[in-house]
Each structure stands twice: as structure tokens, then as C-alpha cells.
Amino acid sequence: MDIIVTGSIAYDYLMRFPGRFTDHLLKDQLHQVSLSFLVDDMTKHWGGVAANIAYNMALMGLQPHLMGTVGRDFPDYRAWLEKVGVNTSTVRQIDEVFTASFFANTDIDNNQIASFYAGAMAYARHYRLADVFDGHPDLVIISPNDPQAMSNLAAECRERGIRFIYDPSQQVPRLSGDELLRDMQGAYALIVNAYEAEVICKKTGKTLEDLQQAIDILVITHGARGSHIYADGQLIQVPAFPPDIIRDPTGVGDAFRAGLVRGMVSGWPLHLSGLVGALCATYVLEHIGTQNHYFTPGQFVARFRQHFDDEGLLDVLLQPAV
Ligand SMILES: Nc1ncnc2c1ncn2[C@@H]1O[C@H](COP(=O)(O)OP(=O)(O)OP(=O)(O)O)[C@@H](O)[C@H]1O
Ligand SMILES: [Mg+2]
Predict the structure, then answer these.
(1) Is residue 107 packed enough to be buried (19+ CB in 10 Å), middle (13-18) or exposed (0-12)?
(2) What CATH code would you report for 3-18+42-306?
(3) In the chain, where are the structural domains located?
(4) Ramachandran region of residue 110, left (φ > 0), alpha (ψ -120 to 50) or beta?
(5) Most Cβ neighbours (<10 Å): which of 81, 177, 193, 301?
């Protein structure tokens, strides 16, 4: 099974400021802001939407191909992904630049000032699937990336008749209604959170019903309230999986997608696929960072069965990787 996950691959630099940003933003000085916050703590994490999805897919026993562009600081990240079972032969390294990086500083009120450096991601538009992968993939996931790259990849999937999932999430604010409509055309599934679904409807002038009719499988996630899957004119409601502790919600959406797709490619019912996505998301919720959690297939299945009945279908996960 050849699954190609395309999208951002990034480093996340997370800092904590032991004060309040608002104490330093002086109302009468906003025309000449020059501030430096001395932070107590900084951690560097593996991140990027495509890499997060691929990491979780690998934990779920798939061997996805990760497609994206990275910079000269990528070798240690590549080694990490390969070790867990992600195929990175489809990643292209551009030595003149750094890998995309997210720098976030959070204060004691959880206010955040962040910057995202696109770096090597801006080169993604220069690569077609055919440039990095020989043959016809079974499924391509188009996740947030350089916007032009996302459009190109969707067009290539349509031209070549490749089944694809459109996952625009963080790029929804950047894309126009026309771009969104064009890129989702022909998608096998569209996955967004509730807020993004609303923005898409506003930008495109379509209703949720219009989207349901245009796309075979429409998935809308609702955070702690779970997710809604619309398929064949039916609404399938999927609850969230109860977390033991909540540490950091970053990356839950990516993990949910990995689990959901794991189920879909295995031919499991959509409700079960959604629940598998929900448990994957819960592991991320319980850890700080998007790839700092780990589970074996055995642990995953045992935990799943504490709450839900899979009628034995998850036994597949206990067999060797596909
Ligand atoms: N507080 C929570 N408790 C349990 N499960 C959660 C919680 N928040 C999210 N999830 C799980 O993760 C799934 C996706 O969550 P959400 O809708 O918040 O995605 P998102 O907004 O795309 O997240 P992000 O972009 O931050 O990764 C939910 O359907 C649910 O299964
Ligand atoms: Mg999201």
C-alpha cells in the first residue's frame, strides 16, 4: 500500500515567558514596538503537519511516504522518522535554506506570539508526485504546505486519477474561495475542523449540504466533542476518546487524520475509523509536542478495547506492517 503524505515538515521552537505580554505592550507606544522577552525555557520539537501525520501512521503500522521540502538542518529529523518507519526517500532537501520553523513564545496567560518561517517549504511547488515517486500511489494526502504546491498536487492527482484526501487546515485562511473549491474538486475525502468548515463555507458561498454532496466523505472535527463524518447522505457521529490527562492539544488534528486513514485504507467502517483516529489524537493530547508520544500496536488495541468494541477488526494492527 503506497500512501504519500504531502505537506509541511517543520521544527517547532517553543518558549515560555514567565510574565504577561500585555504588561509590556504599552498602548501609547504601539507605533514603535521593540520588545525582547527573556524566556525561561525553550524546547525544540519535530513538527510539520505532514510529518506528524506520517509519524502517527507509522505507529499505526503503515509505512507512509513523506513528501515535502526541507533544508540543510534536516538529517537528524530524517533519521528520527526513518527509525519509526516513515519512508523519507520522497523528501527533497534544499541545502541553501533551513527547514520550515515555527517559533512560539507563550506567556503565563497562554497568550502566544509566534512566527512561522517557511524556509524550504517555499520550494515545494517545484516538485510533482511524479518527480519523487515512481508509479501510481494508492492514496495521497494533501496537507498544509506552500499554497501553490497544494494546488499543483491536487491538479496532478486529478490528472492522473490518483485518489486523494484534501486536508487544507491551517492554510484555509490563506486560500481564496475559488482556490479551495478548485483544489477540493475530485477529492475522495475532505477533512477540516469545525472552525475551518465554517470559513470554507463563508469563502466559497457553499453550505455544508453542498460540500457533503460534492465530496464522498466529509469529516468535520469538533475538538473534545468528537467528529462528524458525512458519507452516503448519512451523518456518522464519532465521540472523542477519553484522555487520562490533557497536556497540549497541538497536533491532535494530525494524529486524528492518521488514525482515520489507517481505518479507511483497511476497509473498516467509518465509525470505527473515526474512533481509531480519536484514540490516536488522545495520545497526542496527553503529551507536549506532536511526536513525543509512542505506543505499540498491542498497547493501542488494548487501550481501545477498554472503551469501544471493534468486533475484532483491530487484530490487523497486531500483524506485521503493511
Ligand atoms: N479535549 C479533547 N479531548 C479528547 N479528544 C480531543 C480533544 N480535543 C481534540 N480531541 C480529538 O481530536 C480530534 C480533532 O480535534 P480538533 O477538532 O480540535 O482538531 P484541530 O482543531 O484540527 O486540532 P489541531 O489543528 O490543533 O491539531 C477530535 O475529533 C477528538 O477526537
Ligand atoms: Mg487542525
Answers:
(1) buried
(2) 3.40.1190.20
(3) 3-18+42-306
(4) left
(5) 81
pLDDT band at 322 (very low <50, low <70, confident <90, very high): low
Distance CA 188, CA 181 (A): 14
User: What is the residue with the minimal CA distance to atom 22 of ligand 1?
Assistant: 253
* Site residues for ligand 1, CB cut-off 6 Å: 169, 193, 221-224, 226-227, 240, 243, 246, 249-254, 256, 278, 281-282, 285
Ligand 1 probe mutation, 53, 219, 256, 260, most atoms within 8 A of CB: 256
197-254 per-position pLDDT tens digit: 999 999 999 999 999 999 999 999 999 999 999 999 999 999 999 999 999 898 999 9
pLDDT in tens, 82-141: 999 999 999 999 999 999 999 999 999 989 899 989 999 999 999 999 999 999 999 999
pLDDT digits (tens, 9 = 90+) for 133-174: 999 999 999 999 999 999 999 999 999 999 999 999 999 999
Contact 107, 19 (CB under 8 A): yes
Dihedrals phi, psi of 102, to nearest 5 degrees:
-110, 120
Which stretches of the chain are assigned E, i.e. beta strand?
3-6, 10-16, 41-47, 65-70, 91-93, 100-106, 112-117, 139-142, 164-166, 189-193, 217-221, 227-231, 234-238
- pLDDT tens profile 278-298: 999 999 999 999 999 999 999
Q: Cell 495521497 belongs to which residue?
A: 140
CA distance 184 to 164: 9
Cell of 130: 511524479
Q: CA 91 to CA 60: how far, in whole Å?
A: 21
Q: Is 254 a catalytic residue?
A: yes
With CA atoms as reference, report the closest residue to 190 among 157, 170, 215. Answer: 215
